[in-house]
């Protein structure tokens, strides 16, 4: 029951991370305009995401514009897009695979060893998906920090971390931890298999007594 509980916990964490990755990728607030430094008084706030940029007026009106051309985007935005979309696809497929290998499902119930291997495969792919998302969000955040501390960057062109970055970092960590729980559960199951077959060479052969 303990192993099944760890497996279920890993699956829940992975699923929550998967939902968070989707939300982070869709969100437009990957970077927000910064007002640090000089006393800037402005009636609008700018923020950009992977798919569009938006301007929020002080009156509450928000205007967004989808990026016109993919080729006009910077390599950072294109690379982050690919990593996040790839992470979502891998996590979605891996969750379905892990669901087949979970102990609470009836799929492959007649072959427990194969069922454990399927769950292990799903856990490994989930970890890879989380690493892809972590690399994408960290790459994007590192570029924001570099431009912010660059003395040649104009003050009105500096940006800070947006909400989507924090959601992406948290979701990537949840995905990695959930996949690790699935892998640990399978490895603990495999380690106990050797005790099922104790060695038979410890007992000495019976002596032959002739009368």
TrEMBL record:
<dbReference type="InterPro" id="IPR004031">
    <property type="entry name" value="PMP22/EMP/MP20/Claudin"/>
</dbReference>
<dbReference type="InterPro" id="IPR006187">
    <property type="entry name" value="Claudin"/>
</dbReference>
<protein>
    <recommendedName>
        <fullName>Claudin</fullName>
    </recommendedName>
</protein>
<feature type="transmembrane region" description="Helical">
    <location>
        <begin position="118"/>
        <end position="141"/>
    </location>
</feature>
<feature type="transmembrane region" description="Helical">
    <location>
        <begin position="83"/>
        <end position="106"/>
    </location>
</feature>
<keyword id="KW-1003">Cell membrane</keyword>
<keyword id="KW-0812">Transmembrane</keyword>
<dbReference type="Pfam" id="PF00822">
    <property type="entry name" value="PMP22_Claudin"/>
</dbReference>
<comment type="function">
    <text>Claudins function as major constituents of the tight junction complexes that regulate the permeability of epithelia.</text>
</comment>
<keyword id="KW-0796">Tight junction</keyword>
<dbReference type="InterPro" id="IPR017974">
    <property type="entry name" value="Claudin_CS"/>
</dbReference>
<feature type="transmembrane region" description="Helical">
    <location>
        <begin position="7"/>
        <end position="28"/>
    </location>
</feature>
<dbReference type="GO" id="GO:0005198">
    <property type="term" value="F:structural molecule activity"/>
</dbReference>
<keyword id="KW-0965">Cell junction</keyword>
<keyword id="KW-0472">Membrane</keyword>
<feature type="transmembrane region" description="Helical">
    <location>
        <begin position="161"/>
        <end position="184"/>
    </location>
</feature>
<comment type="similarity">
    <text>Belongs to the claudin family.</text>
</comment>
<keyword id="KW-1133">Transmembrane helix</keyword>
<dbReference type="GO" id="GO:0005923">
    <property type="term" value="C:bicellular tight junction"/>
</dbReference>
<feature type="region of interest" description="Disordered">
    <location>
        <begin position="189"/>
        <end position="211"/>
    </location>
</feature>
<dbReference type="GO" id="GO:0005886">
    <property type="term" value="C:plasma membrane"/>
</dbReference>
């Amino acid at each position: 029951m303990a192993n099944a509980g760890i497996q279920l916990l890993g699956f829940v964490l992975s699923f929550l991370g998967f939902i968070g990755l989707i939300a982070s990728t869709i969100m437009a607030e990957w970077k927000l305009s910064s007002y640090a430094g000089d006393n800037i008084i402005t009636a609008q706030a700018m923020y950009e995401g992977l798919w569009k940029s938006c301007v929020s007026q002080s009156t509450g009106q928000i205007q967004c514009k989808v990026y016109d051309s993919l080729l006009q985007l910077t390599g950072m935005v294109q690379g982050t897009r690919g990593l996040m979309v790839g992470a979502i696809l891998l996590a979605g497929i891996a969750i379905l695979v892990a669901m087949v290998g979970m102990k609470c499902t009836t799929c492959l119930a007649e072959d427990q060893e194969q069922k454990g291997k399927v769950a292990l495969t799903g856990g490994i792919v989930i970890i890879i998906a989380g690493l892809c998302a972590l690399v994408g969000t960290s790459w994007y955040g590192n570029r924001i920090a570099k431009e912010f501390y660059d003395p040649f960057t104009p003050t009105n062109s500096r940006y800070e971390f947006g909400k989507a970055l924090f959601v992406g970092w948290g979701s990537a960590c949840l995905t990695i931890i959930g996949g690790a729980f699935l892998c640990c559960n399978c490895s603990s199951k495999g380690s106990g298999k050797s005790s099922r077959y104790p060695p038979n060479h410890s007992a000495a052969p019976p002596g032959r007594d002739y009368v």
